[in-house]
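Backbone-to-sequence.
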């Protein structure tokens, strides 16, 4: 057969081998369905053996016996296979990969993918994204819509981004599906709770109770004095500190990747004293090391407060500091917000604001240190 001249050669049952003048050869199945003659290609002779061609021919002849057009049926199967490749899980992962460059630590720090992974994909992950409508989304998120409102909102937002990505891929998705689902879900009854904080008047007593020269006590004291979140404290490295300035790397600050920049913290005398006490306990340059390796655990400081029967948590000291600024001082709101590394003003004003107000923050942080150590019992203070 390989050496046969160009022409058509019948194998029986409608299976033909068509040899061309250029030496190529193609398997073709000829059938009649609904009074129409159909020719269906089964592959070229080099990649499909005679045995394989006969098996394929028999498969498609069975389709004809069922009264179906084999060419249309094969196209339907191909479309289904393509849709199966575009499940919500597959498209969501692709959308996440495309978005990673915009996210801090490639999305790991803020766990961008978690709301989808935990609350959406277990139910809808295997469904082709083109088949998903607002009712599917509504039914998936209904059980957490009124109990975990913030998480459900994040899941819906991430899902909308995935649908946008699917549309960019050329898939036929309903771009309004998430908004329609939100309308079906209605207003969430969940009321987010702020992280419990100690009243600012009680901070000095708590601070002074941290009297042990342990990593946990010193880390908590440093967190209170600087007003920062726990992550920069936990990952504080000695080479980040120069004189009375602690320069926190951008990746340790909570901000969008496009807005990330290092943050300078003016260190009060008390903060420098904490560093001095912590240095003998440091390991590999890490100021507050973990018991065995790495840095102190994120839960260590919270656990200490919990064991003391307090509802307040370490993050709440930022609120304590901010309320103290508002109620017990005349420092400006802009200065207080900057001390907490919060963005102030609109995009335009931030674009032109090229200062971190470091020198103005020095007296603010010094007064706060005086207050928490008991040197200034809640008196109203102002910039000298």
């Amino acid at each position: 057969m390989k050496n046969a001249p160009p022409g058509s050669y019948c194998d029986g049952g409608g299976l033909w081998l068509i040899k061309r003048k250029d030496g190529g050869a193609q398997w073709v199945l000829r059938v009649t369905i609904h009074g129409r003659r159909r020719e269906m290609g089964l592959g070229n002779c080099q990649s499909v053996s005679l045995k394989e061609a006969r098996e394929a021919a028999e498969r498609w002849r069975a389709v004809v016996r069922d009264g179906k057009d084999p060419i249309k049926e094969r196209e339907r199967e191909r479309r289904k296979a393509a849709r199966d490749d575009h499940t919500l899980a597959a498209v969501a992962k692709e959308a996440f990969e495309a978005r990673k460059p915009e996210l801090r630590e490639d999305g790991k720090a803020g766990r961008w993918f978690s709301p989808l992974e935990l609350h959406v994909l277990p139910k809808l992950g295997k469904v082709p994204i083109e088949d998903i409508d607002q009712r599917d989304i509504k039914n998936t998120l209904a059980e957490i819509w009124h109990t975990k409102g913030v998480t459900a909102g994040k899941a819906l937002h991430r899902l909308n981004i995935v649908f946008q990505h699917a549309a960019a891929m050329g898939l036929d998705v309903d771009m309004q599906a998430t908004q329609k689902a939100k309308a079906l879900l209605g207003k969430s009854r969940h009321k987010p709770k702020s992280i419990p904080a100690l009243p600012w008047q009680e901070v000095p007593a708590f601070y002074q109770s941290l009297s042990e020269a342990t990593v946990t006590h010193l880390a908590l004291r440093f967190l209170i004095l600087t007003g920062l979140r726990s992550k920069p404290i936990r990952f504080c490295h000695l080479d980040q500190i120069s004189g009375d300035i602690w320069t926190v790397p951008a990746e340790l600050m909570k901000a969008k990747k496009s807005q990330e920049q290092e943050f300078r913290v003016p260190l009060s005398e008390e903060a420098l004293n904490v560093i001095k006490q912590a240095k003998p306990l440091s390991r590999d340059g890490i100021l507050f090391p973990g018991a065995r390796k790495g840095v102190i655990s994120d839960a260590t400081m919270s656990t200490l407060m919990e064991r003391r029967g307090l509802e307040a948590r370490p993050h709440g000291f930022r609120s304590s500091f901010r309320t103290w600024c508002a109620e017990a001082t005349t420092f400006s709101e802009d200065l207080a917000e900057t001390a907490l590394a919060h963005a102030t003003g609109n995009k335009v004003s931030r674009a032109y604001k090229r200062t971190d107000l470091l020198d103005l923050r020095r007296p603010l942080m010094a007064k706060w240190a005086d207050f928490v150590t008991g040197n200034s019992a809640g008196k109203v203070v102002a910039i000298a």
